[in-house]
Every structure is written in C-alpha cells, then in structure tokens.
C-alpha cells in the first residue's frame, strides 16, 4: 500500500518522525537491547562488575524447577482465564442476540467492567474472599466449606483466574455479540424451516460462522492473561502460596526487583520476548486470513 | 428483519431475559459490595457478615479517603492518575499523528526502515522489559516524576499504525488539490487531515485514557514517594503489612474512586469506546 500523491522534501518528514524515534530509541530499543545484553552476564554480588556467561543464564533458568513450574502455572492460568471469560461472554452474547430488541441495553450494562483496572478487580475479589472479613468466604463457611486462598494453592489459582476473567467478559461479550449479529438471519431461518432446533443450529451454523471471532479472541485473551494480569496477582496472592500463582511476568518482576537477580531476570525477559513474538506472528497470520473474508 | 420464527416468544423470551439479568447481577456484585463497604463503618465489616445494603457513613468515609487517605490523600493520587492518563493519551496521539503523516505522505531515504522499526515496538509490552527500562528512567533522574510515568508508556506504535491505516483511506484527490493550490504540507495536515481524523483521535483517546489510568506495574516500580502514587497502584499500598487490620471502608471508597473516571468515560462515550476498541485491534 502506497500513496500516489506525496509531498516533496526529506527534512520535514525527518523532523516529524523525530519525537517518536527519540522516545522509541530511548525507552524501547535501548532497554530491549539491554535486556538481551544483560541476559549474557552475571553481576558480582557488589554490583561492581559482571562476568560474561554466554547462555549460562538461560541454561540455569531452563534447568530451574521453579522457572519450569512457572511455565506450567502460566499455561494453566491463561488457559483457564481464556476459557472462563470467553465461555461466560459467549453465553451472554447468545442470549442477548436472541432478543428482538433490548440487546443494546444489556450491552450498555455489560461493557463497563472493561474500564475497571485489573489491580482494582483484584482488590474487589480479594475483599469478597478475604478469610477474615470476606462475605463470600463467610457464607461458604456457613455451608461448611472452609475457604482459605492464602494457604490453599488451588483456591488461590481459582480466585486469580476468576478475578482476571471477570473484567474481560465485557470485551469478549462485545466482540461475540457483534460477530453473532453479523450472521445473516436468512441462513438461520432457513435451518429453522428445515426443522433444526436451537442447539442444532448453533452447533452446525452459528459456531462455524463465528470461528473467526472466536480465534481472534483466543489470541487476544491469551496475550491479556500473559501480560496484563500482573495487577490481579500482585494484589490478591503476590504469587503465592509458595509459587502457586507466580506466572512468568510476575517472576520477571520478583527475580529482578525483589531478588535483584538482574541477569536471570533479563534472560526471562528475553524468553518472554520470544513468546510475544510467536503470539504476534499467530495474530498476524490470522489477520491476513481475515482480510480475505 | 430481526423477527421471525427464530426468536422465541412467551416463556422462552422470559428465560432469555432472566438469564441475562442473572449475568448482569453476578458481574455487578463485586462492585456493589465494594460500594456498600465504602458506606458502612469499620466495625460492621470486621464482624462478618457485613451488610449487603448501603449504610450511613458515605460522606465520612469518602471525606476521610480524599483528605487524608492512608499514606497520601486520595485526592492527590487521583490528580496524579489524571496527569498520567491524559499525558499518555495526548503524548501518544501527538507523536503518532506526526510520524504517521511523515510515513504516509512523504518519500524519503530510510522510510521503510523507520516504518519497520516503529512497527517492531507493537510486539513488546513494558512488562517484558521492566528492569532495563527502570534503569534508563532512573539514570535520567525521572523516578517519582510525571515524565517517568508517561514517556516509557508512549514508546509503542499502536497509535502510529492506526493513523497510518486511516491516512491510507483518505482520498488522494485531497492531497492533490492541496498541492495544486500550492499549500505546504503542514497546511494540508492542519486544515484537512487533522479535521478528518477527529473521530479516530477521539476514539483512540478514550482507549488510551483507560490504558493509562489503569497502569499498575510501572507506577508501582517508579513511584516510591507516596505523594507521586497513582490511585490504581496506591490501593494495594493502603493495606498494612503484618497483622494489623486494614481500614476497609477507606480502602473500598478508594477502589470506587479509582474505577469511577474510566467507567464514566466508557459509559458516556460508549460509541467512541466501541469504535476505538475495534479499531485498535485491527
């Protein structure tokens, strides 16, 4: 894609680009380069000099059971967040799509939790399930269930998953509803005339036609769960109990800032960088495909 | 035509409404509970179960939060968040408009290189490069400053990419006419391109404002001085370490205040918000 009509000169465009180039160079390329550079060194305990170790940091990381556990934790966490938030959103979107009128009202009521910061969502859910004052924890206690996400690893994971998925339902709902409303009525009515019940229609017509939206949301939600849920985990569990909710991004933070392991943290950054790269490639492949629709 | 045999009537119709209403209520519940907690007194919360209907301490709790807070007055944290969110939104929009204009409307050496360099930044969220970015900001003496809060977060090309896409759809005849009239490039930018981009700019502003307001990790790292805390990261700092009991009514009042501005933006600018969301994911 190129413009046929352009203006002459090269000084002006360079000046126009300058602010973005400077900011990107200083706050993006230099730090990203530093991350790669630092990942090859181990600083001495006094921080005065560092020793070149090549891929030593990576070897150490990949052999570290805690780091490997964090990979599994991240996979479980992002899988569950994606499943829960997309499942609930699809259910609500299918219901809203069945209405002849009024779907706009429900949309208005459902979209605004998107605006609630993950960290604030974390505080809200932590408050409900707080072992001392939480209302939900208290009622669970009445039912004979002793809730304690501070000690129980499964409950901790459950809580951060639900808190992370909660704010995300709005977003998924919006895209699912738009996708559903784009499906031509005539196709669905034709199936109805042929006697297909709601569930059959959904399985054989709606779901396949919705698949571009579903796939797009899948990628976007995994990216969200990877990178934007730090606030939820930091406010609710701080990665605990033990390491049960320490996802990769949380571990970069913990090892780099709390543990002061600069080389190890930088190596983790580089691994994350590769992961983001892969996810982006998947996303672009998909967008290319979508253009053909 | 949305009515036909596919939509159900009678009982089924009501089931649809009931299902949706339950969904809405469940999604609202955490916020309702936070609101209730912000209107009752501390003793009512620490002896569970807390009430499920608002109490009479609304003004007292919010006044206490805004004026004194826990570490810093929440009014101050709100102001910090506002500066950060507006700074990020405006900063990113301005630099992106300029660079997208340069990339689309000029031919100059290295244009493709610049484009790809900027494009690369789409891939890497700040969370991934926090330690080195922190070091850069520290070496500039930008810890505990607004510029430290804002600049690292505008170093990404999402907006540039978006404006580039939009400029490509602007008819060539407009630039042609401007050139024939002898208008200089910046004149064309100000008088034609900018007015045409109004809706895109507004939609992007909504998305970026929410993005900036809701930042957590970055402010957590670089604002060690409580008077520079933003409200979203400041809430967690209000919890006491150790076994002391948290001041729940004040903390919950702060949580409500923290979500209010972005929620107001989304609700009052719903159309722009949806448009911005869809645009920025293209």
TrEMBL record, chain A:
Record gene name: ugpA
GO cellular component term, pick one: plasma membrane
Segments crossing the lipid bilayer: 12-30, 71-96, 108-128, 156-183, 204-227, 266-287
Subcellular location field: Cell inner membrane; Cell membrane
GO biological process, one term: transmembrane transport
Pfam families with a match to the protein in the record: BPD_transp_1
Protein name: sn-glycerol-3-phosphate transport system permease protein UgpA
Topology within the bilayer: Multi-pass membrane protein
Record domain ABC transmembrane type-1: where: 71-283
Subunit: The complex is composed of two ATP-binding proteins (UgpC), two transmembrane proteins (UgpA and UgpE) and a solute-binding protein (UgpB).
Function, as annotated: Part of the ABC transporter complex UgpBAEC involved in sn-glycerol-3-phosphate (G3P) import. Probably responsible for the translocation of the substrate across the membrane.
Source organism, top-level taxon: Bacteria
Keywords: Cell inner membrane, Cell membrane, Membrane, Transmembrane, Transmembrane helix, Transport
Entry similarity comment: Belongs to the binding-protein-dependent transport system permease family.
UniProtKB/TrEMBL annotation, chain B:
Principal location: membrane
Transmembrane stretches, start-end: 12-35, 82-106, 113-134, 146-167, 248-267
GO cellular component, one term: plasma membrane
Protein's GO biological process: transmembrane transport
InterPro entries reported in the protein's UniProt record: MetI-like, MetI-like_sf
Domain of life: Bacteria
Membrane topology: Multi-pass membrane protein
Domain ABC transmembrane type-1 positions: 78-269
Subcellular location: Cell inner membrane; Cell membrane
Keywords: Cell inner membrane, Cell membrane, Membrane, Transmembrane, Transmembrane helix, Transport
Family: Belongs to the binding-protein-dependent transport system permease family.
Function summary: Part of the ABC transporter complex UgpBAEC involved in sn-glycerol-3-phosphate (G3P) import. Probably responsible for the translocation of the substrate across the membrane.
NCBIfam families: PRK10973.1
Quaternary context: The complex is composed of two ATP-binding proteins (UgpC), two transmembrane proteins (UgpA and UgpE) and a solute-binding protein (UgpB).
Name of the protein this chain belongs to: sn-glycerol-3-phosphate transport system permease protein UgpE
């Amino acid at each position: 894609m190129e413009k046929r009509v352009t203006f002459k000169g090269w000084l002006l465009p360079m000046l126009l680009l300058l602010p973005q180039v400077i900011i990107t160079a200083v706050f993006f390329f230099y730090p990203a380069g530093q991350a790669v550079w630092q990942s090859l060194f181990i600083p001495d305990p006094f921080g005065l000099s560092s020793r070149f170790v090549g891929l030593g940091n990576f070897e150490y990381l990949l052999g570290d059971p805690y780091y490997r556990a964090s990979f599994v934790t991240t996979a479980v966490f992002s899988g569950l967040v994606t499943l829960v938030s997309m499942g609930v959103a699809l259910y609500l979107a299918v219901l809203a799509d069945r209405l002849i009128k009024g779907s706009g009202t429900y949309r208005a009521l459902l979209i605004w939790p998107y605006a609630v910061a993950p960290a604030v969502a974390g505080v809200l859910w932590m408050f409900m399930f707080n072992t001392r004052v939480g209302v939900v924890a208290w009622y669970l206690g009445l039912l004979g269930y002793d809730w304690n996400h501070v000690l129980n690893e499964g409950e901790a994971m459950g809580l951060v998953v639900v808190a992370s998925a909660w704010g995300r339902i709005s977003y998924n709902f919006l895209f699912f509803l738009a996708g559903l409303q784009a499906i031509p009525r005539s196709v669905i009515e034709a199936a109805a005339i042929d006697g297909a019940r709601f569930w059959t229609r959904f399985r054989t017509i709606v779901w396949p036609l919705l698949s571009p939206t579903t796939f797009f949301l899948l990628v976007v939600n995994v990216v969200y769960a990877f990178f934007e849920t730090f606030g939820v985990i930091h406010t609710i569990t701080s990665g605990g109990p033990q390491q049960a909710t320490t996802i990769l991004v949380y571990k970069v933070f913990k090892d780099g800032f709390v543990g002061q392991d600069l080389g190890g943290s930088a190596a983790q950054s580089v691994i994350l960088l590769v992961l983001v790269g892969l996810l982006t490639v998947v996303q672009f492949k998909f967008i290319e495909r979508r253009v053909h629709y | 035509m949305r009515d036909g045999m596919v939509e159900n009537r009678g009982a089924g119709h009501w089931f649809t409404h009931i299902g949706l209403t339950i969904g809405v209520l469940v999604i609202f519940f955490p916020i309702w509970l936070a609101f209730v907690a912000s209107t009752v007194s501390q003793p009512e919360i620490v002896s569970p179960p807390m009430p499920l209907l608002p109490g009479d301490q609304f003004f007292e709790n919010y006044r206490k939060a805004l004026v004194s807070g826990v570490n810093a007055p929440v009014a101050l944290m709100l102001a910090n968040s506002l500066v950060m969110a507006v700074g990020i939104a405006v900063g990113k929009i301005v630099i992106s408009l300029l660079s997208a204009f340069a990339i689309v409307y000029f031919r100059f050496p290295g244009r493709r290189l610049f484009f790809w360099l900027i494009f690369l930044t789409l891939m890497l969220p700040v969370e991934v490069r926090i330690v080195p970015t922190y070091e850069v900001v520290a070496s500039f003496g930008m810890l505990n400053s607004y510029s430290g809060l804002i600049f690292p977060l505008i170093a990404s090309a999402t907006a540039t990419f978006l404006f580039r896409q939009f400029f490509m759809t602007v008819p060539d005849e407009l630039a042609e006419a401007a050139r024939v009239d002898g208008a200089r490039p910046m004149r064309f930018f100000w008088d034609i391109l900018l007015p045409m981009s109004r809706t895109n700019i507004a939609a992007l502003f909504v998305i970026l404002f929410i993005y900036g307001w809701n930042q957590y990790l970055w402010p957590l790292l670089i604002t060690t001085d409580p008077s520079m805390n933003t409200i979203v990261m400041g809430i967690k700092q209000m919890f006491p370490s150790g076994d002391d009991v948290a001041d729940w009514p004040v903390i919950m009042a702060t949580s409500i205040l923290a979500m209010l501005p972005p929620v107001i933006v989304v609700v009052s600018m719903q159309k722009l918000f949806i448009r911005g969301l869809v645009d920025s994911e293209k």
